[in-house]
Write a structure and sequence with these properties.
It is a single chain. This protein is an alpha/beta fold. Among the domains are: about 110-205 and about 530-535, no CATH class; about 370-505, Glycogen Phosphorylase B (Rossmann fold). Helix content is about 35%, strand content about 10%. It has 18 helices and 13 strands. It has helices at about 10-30, 70-80, 95-110, 135-140, 150-175, 190-205, 230-240, 260-265, 275-295, 295-300, 315, 320-325, 385-395, 410-420, 435-440, 475-480, 485-500, 515-525; strands spanning about 115, 210, 245, 255, 305-310, 330, 345-350, 375-380, 400-405, 420-425, 445-450, 465-470, 530. The strands form three sheets. A six-stranded parallel sheet has the order 3-2-4-5-6-7. A five-stranded parallel sheet has the order 9-8-10-11-12, with helices on both faces. A two-stranded antiparallel sheet has the order 1-13. The two termini are about 45 Å apart. Bound molecules: 2-acetamido-2-deoxy-beta-D-glucopyranose (NAG) (7 copies). One 2-acetamido-2-deoxy-beta-D-glucopyranose binds next to helix 3 and helix 9. One 2-acetamido-2-deoxy-beta-D-glucopyranose binds near residues 133 and 135. GO terms for molecular function: glycosyltransferase activity. One of its GO terms (cellular component) is Golgi membrane. Belongs to the glycosyltransferase 47 family. Its main location: Golgi. Pfam families: Exostosin_GT47 (PF03016).
């Protein structure tokens, strides 16, 4: 309601929403951990899981116009514009054009226009980085074939080269820059000084072009409260931030302002035999549109473009355009390396549930000595890991409180605040809002996950403020957690409180908050590539 209010549609559903808020909160406490896929289904969106018994993902498309009351209430979260729904409105590309471009594309493939640096620019690496020499970049200007309009790219690359050099120097020199807001320091950072310098370089020069094409609600919009809240928040903040440039010639990266949650919400049809196709077509049409209208997609074959999705289906839908899947930066909550997530090119960002649309009431918790429960989990029994957890720990031990449903009258957030460790097992997807809930409430997150790249692990060393328990050690959970000394626990907890700022969602983004951290991860990925090959254009 607050964060995206400037683009919320105001309707009767608003009133209804306030009526159902207590209902939602209660449901969250008791049925926490239900599948995200159920969020938009008509009758089961709060209580039932999004997977049917056969394990197939199901979601129900909500009637868009004149839906029933509670559908309106769901849509309220969605901020969609009822009167303005245009899907697939792009003119199709002709077959002839396709053929022509086929040849061009071949050429591009033979001589790639992007250099992926051998060693990725990754602040987690403690070794100094091999940086491309600026000479290399200058070589371009001696190319006779370069057309004048692309000297802008050349300038951008020179600036990026300087930023790389500055970060490299900061990583080695041990000179910490002053910062009135916050100076990153401590073992939570792989290299605090390199991160700080990189962050400042980003603030100094990073520019993002947001394509204006596309209509709401699929484009330029997204949910702001649900488990997918980061989609709507990021899109809104990206469109209003000072990092946005209206001049594509000045942009380091190009944002595709599409919401996968919106695609699933408005286009998914469970009755259709091939339900992926229309959803994927939407993304394909959009890439065709912007690559036909502007030279930038073809220039890099997508490598300086990024999309963002918090939805479970983000990775699958991103496969619609092979070049996007292969080359572009995909910022995903569902950062599952088994589903093609590449840590050096893609960005892992946190899933954050904002029941009221803001962090109000979510932050803070008592000191370690006033937390009486060793470990806590409550949530649905979905995915492969949770059944194992429940099997070993449900109602087994008062110190390890593992529940499917919390007893009546017990507050979910109250339990987080009373617990030393908060268990974060994967469900259907690797990500879960629990990690951030734990950090918000001063509980130390315990990651029980396979194939997951935790958010911002390009900058943050999760081992310094969380505990990772391999799935096969679930039976030893109590032994492992009880074996952590009070001193070590206090350290973990204190560091968690310190990194909390990187996970905070602000209506107007603040420095070092989650919006800026996502942007910073994208900035780092852009530093990993060098664009050249101007002679093709
Ligand atoms: C909704 O669409 C109408 C008509 O296109 C437009 O005037 C209005 O500004 C839109 N509202 C929002 C919140 O986008
Ligand atoms: C689950 O979904 C699959 C595929 O959509 C369907 O074949 C199956 O009958 C469903 N099972 C139940 C129990 O609804
Ligand atoms: C740049 O090129 C000059 C002349 O070719 C060479 O002397 C110098 O070492 C090069 N600098 C770097 C950083 O590679
Ligand atoms: C550290 O920074 C100061 C002031 O910016 C500068 O004078 C000094 O040379 C730097 N030291 C190193 C080792 O880079
Ligand atoms: C980019 O390539 C596509 C096909 O590969 C082609 O249809 C399109 O016209 C090209 N865009 C520009 C701006 O040249
Ligand atoms: C960064 O590098 C380290 C070690 O070189 C590696 O373990 C880690 O996975 C890399 N992270 C990313 C995000 O590329
Ligand atoms: C990660 O991806 C693999 C491959 O698609 C899948 O089998 C696995 O279930 C995923 N993990 C989670 C927790 O979703």
């Amino acid at each position: 309601m607050k964060i995206c209010s400037s683009w919320c549609s105001k309707s009767a559903s608003t009133r209804f929403f306030w009526i159902i808020i207590p209902f939602i909160l209660v449901s969250i406490f008791f049925a926490f951990g239900n599948s995200k896929s159920s969020s938009f289904s008509t009758s089961t969106w709060l209580f039932s899981s999004g997977k049917n018994n056969s394990g197939e993902l199901v979601a129900v498309k909500v009637a868009v116009n004149g839906g029933a009351d509670h559908e309106d209430a769901i849509l309220e979260d969605y901020n969609f514009n009822n009167s303005n729904i245009i899907i697939n409105s792009f003119s199709p590309i002709t077959a002839e054009a396709d053929q022509e471009s086929e040849e061009e594309f071949q050429e591009n493939h033979e001589q790639p226009v992007v250099t992926q640096k051998d060693e990725s620019f990754n602040i987690s690496s403690e070794k100094p980085h091999e940086l491309p020499s600026l000479n290399e970049t200058h070589d371009l200007s001696t190319e006779p074939k370069i057309k004048k309009k692309f000297t802008n790219l050349e300038k951008l690359e020179v600036q990026l080269g300087k930023a790389r050099a500055a970060i490299k120097e900061a990583a080695m020199s041990g000179n910490q820059t002053d910062d009135s807001d916050y100076v990153p320091t401590g073992p939570m950072y792989w290299n605090a000084k390199a991160f700080h310098r990189s962050y400042l370089e980003m603030e100094k020069q990073f520019k993002v072009f947001v394509y204006e094409e596309g209509e709401q609600p699929i484009f330029h919009n997204g949910p702001c409260k649900s488990i997918y809240a980061m989609e709507g928040n990021f899109i809104y903040q990206m469109e209003t931030t000072k990092f946005r440039t209206r001049d594509p010639e000045k942009a380091h990266v190009f944002f595709l302002p599409i919401s996968v949650t919106a695609i699933v919400h408005f286009i998914y049809d469970r009755k259709s035999r091939d339900h992926w196709n229309p959803m994927k077509q939407t993304l394909t049409d959009y890439i065709n549109l912007v690559s036909g209208k502007y030279p930038y997609w073809n220039r890099s074959i997508g490598a300086d473009h990024f999309m963002l999705s918090c939805h479970d289906w983000g990775p699958e839908i991103s496969k619609a355009v092979p070049e996007l899947f292969k080359n572009s930066i995909r910022a995903l909550c569902n950062a599952n390396t088994s589903e093609g997530f590449k840590p050096s090119r893609d960005v892992s960002f946190p899933e954050i549930l904002l029941p009221g649309g803001t962090m109000d009431g979510l932050l803070g918790g008592p000191s370690p000595s006033r937390r009486s429960i060793l470990a806590f989990f409550a949530g649905g029994l979905h995915g492969p890991i949770r059944p194992v957890l429940l099997e070993h720990w449900e109602n087994k031990d008062n110190d390890v409180q593992v529940h499917r449903y919390l007893p009546k009258g017990v507050s979910y957030y109250g339990m987080l605040r009373n617990s030393k460790f908060c268990l974060c097992p994967s469900g259907y997807e690797v990500a879960s809002p629990r990690m951030v809930e734990a950090l918000y409430t001063g509980c130390v997150p315990v990651l029980i996950k396979d194939h997951y790249v935790p958010p911002f692990s390009d900058v943050l060393n999760w081992k310094s403020f969380s505990v990772e328990v391999p799935v096969e050690r679930i039976p030893d959970l109590k032994k492992i957690l009880a074996g952590i000394s009070t001193r070590q626990y206090i350290r973990l907890q204190r560091r968690g409180k310190q990194v909390r700022r990187h996970f905070e969602v602000n209506r107007t983004p603040k420095r070092y908050d989650v919006f800026h951290m996502i942007l910073h991860s994208i900035w780092l990925r852009r530093l990993n590539i060098k664009l050249h090959g101007l002679e093709y254009l």
